[in-house]
Amino acid sequence: MAQKISLTRYLVEQQREEGHIPSQLRLLLEVVARACKSISQAVNKGALGGVLGSADSENVQGEVQKKLDIIANEVLIEANEWGGHLAAMASEEMDSIYLVPNRYPQGEYLLLFDPLDGSSNIDVNVSIGTIFSVLKKPEGSPGVTEQDFLQAGAQQVAAGYCVYGPQTTLVLTVGDGVSMFTLDREQGSFVLTQENVTIPADTKEFAINMSNMRHWDEPVKRYIDECLQGKEGPRGKDFNMRWIASMVADVHRILTRGGVFMYPWDKREPNKPGKLRLMYEANPMSWLVEQAGGAATNGRQRILDIVPGQLHERVSVVLGSKNEVDRVTSYHTGV
Ligand SMILES: O=P(O)(O)OC[C@H]1O[C@](O)(COP(=O)(O)O)[C@@H](O)[C@@H]1O
Ligand SMILES: [Mg+2]
Ligand SMILES: [Mg+2]
Fold first, then answer.
1. Which ligand neighbours the alpha carbon of 208 most closely?
2. Which reaction does it catalyse (predicted)?
3. % of the chain exceeding 70 in pLDDT
4. Closest by alpha carbon to 104, among 76, 89, 83, 90?
5. Residue 106 CA, distance from chain mean position
6. DSSP string for 93-129
7. Is the reported ipTM for this assembly greater than 0.95?
């Protein structure tokens, strides 16, 4: 039987043999994986662990928090703050950045996360996940400020997510392709189950919340309309549709079998660039998708090139199979 490669061993080899990651980054990723393992355990207990339902609070974006949003946020902070590899953290669930307390050693990385993605699916036992992104603190800056976080996604040094579904799967890139690790509950460790994940350039599957159709912009309407016409339409093939309403699970499907995922700008709140968060959702997912051969734009521009103006910035998202993303983008830009 082929030897199982644990996440720890994989990361050590990335550090030692490939020279891709410094030891502090390796340690950081191991801690994030450990935190995901414990969030996975909480998710698994569900009603038995008292983790379902809403908390009596709202986050900075005015969204009602679920108990698990708060639990996952705390797990990630507590696991990471004392290890010495981080300078600060930022989360979808916190108003501003979280500085590593002075009593702990200070590191050089910045960790950003959506602790629990797909909150509306928690109580109905549908896949949810944790999304994370790692940046380097800019050199020469003394302390840490929010400004230090405002780096384009292209600056990420690691990105990934952990999906809590029928299996718990951690998906990671450090800029050298995408690897997947499945949680072996008996061993208590993540085991490498796929390397060099590749998204096919073409697809017959799209993911979008169709209930928003009447609010979309013309280029999105055109693209979906052409898909819906199927074999008889300009695309000459039938399309399938999926919408899980957990970005993490929708992107996992796309990394597994291809497809295009869209959460476009719409007319309901014209001043908001989109629903999804640039730094906690779009950037890490876009880097993973690009590393797997796919593409990610906001309809006009590569997402990884956007320089954020604020921590909780939102963005329009089109990502997945390259030829479809290029098509949607060309419908917006006219080229
Ligand atoms: O209900 P909608 O508008 O289709 O929203 C689904 C989208 O909202 C999100 O759930 C937002 O994530 P959070 O649960 O972290 O707020 C995305 O994962 C998903 O793509
Ligand atoms: Mg989310
Ligand atoms: Mg969330």
1. 1
2. beta-D-fructose 1,6-bisphosphate + H2O = beta-D-fructose 6-phosphate + phosphate
3. 100
4. 83
5. 26
6. TSSS-EEPPTTS---SEEEEEEEEE-GGGTTTT--EE
7. yes
The alpha carbon of 113 and the centre of ligand 2 are apart by a number of angstroms equal to 9
Inter-residue contact 203 to 320 (CB < 8 Å): yes
Residues placed in the known binding site for Mg(2+) = 92, 114, 116-117, 281
7-194 matches 205-333 in fold = no
Six token digits for residue 50: 């008292």
pLDDT (tens digit per residue) in 91-114: 999 999 999 999 999 999 999 999
What residue numbers does the annotated binding site cover? Answer: 92, 114, 116-120, 209, 275, 281
Residues with Cβ within 8 Å of 31's Cβ and at least 6 positions away in sequence, in order, are: 79, 80, 83, 85
Q: Place domain 7-194 in its CATH homologous superfamily.
A: Fructose-1,6-Bisphosphatase, subunit A, domain 1 (3.30.540.10)
Give the residue ranges of the annotated binding site for substrate.
117-120, 209, 275
Q: Which CATH architecture has domain 205-333?
A: 3-Layer(aba) Sandwich (3.40)
Tokens 């410094």, located at residue: 22
Ligand in nearest proximity to the CA of 121:
1
Centre of ligand 2 to C-alpha 33, Å, is: 18
Which atom of ligand 1 lies closest to the CA of 92? 15
How are beta strands 205-207 and 240-241 bridged, if at all?
parallel
Question: Where are the domains positioned within the chain?
Answer: 7-194, 205-333
Ligand 1 site-directed mutation target among 119, 124, 316, most atoms within 8 Å of CB? 119
3 state DSSP class of 317? strand
pLDDT in tens, 284-296: 999 999 999 999 9
List residues near ligand 1 (CB under 6 A). 92, 114, 117-120, 209, 245-247, 263
